[in-house]
Amino acid sequence: MNIEQARIYAAKVNREIAAEAFTADYYADHVTVEKRQEIKERNIKLAEEIERGEHDGNFTVAQRMHYFQTGECPALLP
């Protein structure tokens, strides 16, 4: 497993959120089409940034990458 594969794994969540922006039923009724489009665009951008390594220092991203590489999920606090 290499770092590029780990980044792709870490970005998967954001790509899934983007893909579900218009089909998910967990959004409240007041979430507009424009807001869903914004959510989609923001998550695609974030996924691309994660895959380029721009968020390797972000704890959540690093934790997902570590899990992908080792199968272990380190706790935020001991």
Note the topology:
Layout: H1 3-19, H2 33-51, H3 59-70
Structure description:
The chain is an all-alpha fold and 78 residues long. The protein has one domain. It contains three helices and no strands. The chain is elongated, with a radius of gyration of 14 Å.
Strands, total number:
0
Order of helices and strands: HHH
**Class by alpha and beta content:** mainly alpha
Terminal Cα separation, in Å?
A: 27 Å
**Estimated helix fraction:** 55-70%
Number of domains: 1
What is the gist of this entry?
The protein has 78 residues and is an all-alpha fold. It is 62% helix and 0% strand.
Descriptors for this entry?
elongated; mainly alpha; single chain; 62% helix; 78 residues
